[in-house]
Structures are given as structure tokens and as C-alpha cells.
Design brief:
Bound molecules: 2'-monophosphoadenosine-5'-diphosphate
Mean pLDDT: 97
Number of strands: 12
Largest sheet: 6 strands, mixed
Order of helices and strands: EHEHEHEHEEHEHEHEEEHEHHH
Distance between the termini: 24 Å
Shape: globular
Strand order of the largest sheet: 2-1-3-5-6-4
Structural class: alpha/beta
Length: 279
């Protein structure tokens, strides 16, 4: 990578930041499209996050991604947030305008839907069953509601968190007990795991897919391992499987396009390049 004095600079802030895959992912695209630009990891501690974000225009930075634990602080620090970020109270992408204005958005839901559409192009919005009720579930439910799904059944170990989401999203969200998760699969047109269960080092996700229609895609947002036990079970019975890494790749597209002026593509080569670092 050789930069000129005109290079555009973007990056990702988090604490810690060393685990982030985003520099590798954006770096691949910068190289692929021959862009005079850089995307760097920036470790920012919680006490400095607002000051760092407010300083971006002064440093001539094009924008940043925001990762754990700064997404809520970023929402408060930007000048303007788009509708999705407002409904989530969390920002993962900041664009610095020509006038220095900071605009925040949340692209997790976009990434979720874009990867679903790319993997199962014929999917039409039907009832969805969501496992988990954390921050990831909130973004995904928002996107599913916006995509006009008729019903979302949410089941979470801590029922109260699922009820909070149901209160937020209205009548289309129905809460089921965690113990009822197998029965909640009946009639679903899509199953999404938003919990950390099944991740390398975490507990197993104990679920029996027998009641799930075989046409329903199974989407796991866990991407280490690439094929989780849930996806293996789904694939073995003939359900379409949707790997979690794709959501991460797709959610990066809007930021890259805004900062560097090229609409980037999610390709198998990109996926393999990012996977290499997970191996
Ligand atoms: P994120 O914001 O990334 O979604 P999170 O808020 O920690 O992360 O949510 C993790 C999800 O995994 C939650 O739904 C959590 O359930 P609780 O709300 O009951 O904590 C779920 N989860 C984590 N470990 C679990 C376990 N051992 N059994 C069942 N669910 C689990």
C-alpha cells in the first residue's frame, strides 16, 4: 500500500480493537479497487470516545466504524443519526460530511438483510423465529419489521429481555419461553440465532429442528466456527444455511461506499481472505 498526500483515511474505533476483522476486510477492498486510501484500527478507551469522535473532522478523517463498547456513545456524539440508528440508540458507522458534520448510521440490519437476499434470493417475508434478545437481536428485529415480516417469535433465556423487544416493536413480536424454542419453529419461514451459543468456546445451542419447515433458511450470526453445529444440523436436513460471516461483510458496504466513493462487492474471494485470519 502506497499512499499519496490525498489519501482518504477511515478506520474503526473500539476497546479493545485488536480482534476486529474490519481493517482486513476494508483493506481487501482498498487493494481490490486500487484506492488511494487507508482503513486503520484505532484503540479508543471509553473515557476518550466522545472527544475522539468530535475530533474526526479536525483531522480530515472521512469516517469510522464503531464497535464494542462504543456504539451507544457514538450515537450520542454524532450531529445527526439516521432512522435506524435512532430506533436502536446505537451507531456503527460515522460519515464526516464536507462541512464537518458527523452523520451516524447503523448498518447491522442492512448487513443482515443484504446477506439473506444474496444467499437465498427467493426468500419472501414470512413468520420468523429469533433466538436471543441482545443487541444483535434488536438490529435484526428492526430490519425484519422494516422488511414487513408478519410475525417474529422471540425466545430468550432471560424472558424479560425478549419482552423489552416486544414492547419496543409492537404486536408483530411474540415472546416464547426459552424452553419452548423447539415448538416455536413450527411454521417459521426463517430461523435466526442471535445468541452466542455455538460459538467456539461458548456453550452449545441445544435445539431440535424437527418442527422447522425444510424450506426455511437457518441463519446463524455466529461465525467462529464457520459452520456452527446449528448450521450443520440445518444443512443435514435440507434447510438452506446462511453463515454469519456474510452479515459482517455486508454491513461494511455502506461505510466503504461513503468514505471511498466505490460501492464494494462481497465476493467469495473477500470471504476467503477474511476467513484466513479466523483459521
Ligand atoms: P449481543 O449484544 O451481541 O447480542 P448479548 O447482549 O450479550 O450480545 O446477547 C447474547 C445473547 O446470547 C443473549 O440473548 C443471551 O441470553 P440472555 O439475555 O439470557 O443473557 C444469549 N446467551 C448467552 N449465553 C447463553 C446461554 N448459555 N444460554 C442461553 N442463552 C445465552
Amino acid at each position: 500500500m502506497i499512499l499519496t498526500g490525498k489519501a482518504k483515511i477511515a478506520g474503526v474505533i473500539g476497546w479493545p480493537i485488536s480482534h476486529s476483522l474490519s481493517p482486513r476486510l476494508h483493506g481487501f477492498w482498498l487493494d481490490e479497487y486500487g484506492i488511494d486510501g487507508a482503513y486503520i484500527p484505532i484503540a479508543v478507551s471509553p473515557e476518550n470516545v466522545t472527544e475522539v469522535i468530535r475530533s474526526l473532522p479536525k483531522m480530515g478523517i472521512a469516517g469510522i466504524n464503531v464497535t464494542v463498547p462504543h456504539k451507544e456513545a457514538a450515537f450520542r456524539a454524532v450531529d445527526e443519526a439516521d432512522a435506524v440508528a435512532q430506533s436502536m440508540g446505537a451507531v456503527n458507522t460515522i460519515v464526516v460530511g464536507a462541512d464537518g458534520k458527523l452523520t451516524g448510521s447503523n448498518t447491522d440490519g442492512f448487513g443482515f438483510m443484504a446477506h439473506l437476499g444474496a444467499t437465498v434470493p427467493g426468500w419472501t417475508a414470512g413468520p420468523v423465529t429469533v433466538l436471543g434478545a441482545g443487541g444483535a437481536a434488536r438490529g435484526i428485529c428492526r430490519a425484519l419489521i422494516d422488511a414487513a415480516v408478519p410475525e417474529i417469535q422471540i425466545t430468550n433465556r432471560t424472558r424479560a429481555r425478549a419482552e423489552t423487544l416486544a414492547d419496543e416493536f409492537g404486536d408483530r413480536v411474540v415472546v416464547r419461553d426459552w424452553d419452548e424454542r423447539n415448538a416455536a419453529l413450527e411454521g417459521a419461514s426463517l430461523l435466526v440465532n442471535t445468541t452466542t451459543l455455538g460459538m467456539a468456546g461458548a456453550d452449545d445451542l441445544e435445539i431440535d429442528l424437527a418442527a422447522l419447515p425444510t424450506a426455511a433458511p437457518v441463519y446463524d450470526i455466529v461465525y467462529t466456527p464457520r459452520i456452527t453445529p446449528l448450521l450443520a444440523q440445518a444443512g443435514a436436513r435440507g434447510n438452506p444455511v446462511i453463515e454469519g460471516l456474510g452479515m459482517l461483510l455486508h454491513q461494511a458496504r455502506p461505510g466503504f461506499a461513503a468514505w471511498f466513493g466505490v460501492e464494494p462487492e462481497v465476493t467469495p474471494a473477500l470471504r476467503d481472505f477474511v476467513l484466513e485470519s479466523l483459521a
